[in-house]
Amino acid sequence: MSSENMRRPEKALSPRFVETVSDPGKYFDGHGLFLRVAKNGAKQWVQRITIRGKRTELGLGSPPAVPLKMAREQALLNRGKAMLGGDPLAEKRKAREGMTFSDAVDKYLAAKLSEFRNEKHRKQWRSTLDAYAAPVIGPKLVSEIDVQDVLRVLEPIWKDKTETASRLRGRIENVLSWATVAGHRTGDNPARWKGNLSETLPKPAKVAKGDNQPALALSDVSRWWADLRQRDGMAARALEFLTLTAARSGEVRGMTWDEIDLGRRDKTDATDKTPAANPANSANSGAVWTVPASRMKNGREHRVPLTPEAVALLEALPRMDGSPFVFFAPRGGMLSDMSISAVMRRMQEAEVKAKRRGYLDPRNKRPAVPHGLRSTFRQWAAERGYPRDMAEIALAHWIGSEVERAYQRADMLDRRRDMMADWIAHLCSETAQASKVSNIRR
Question: What's the structural domain count of the chain?
Answer without folding.
Answer: 3
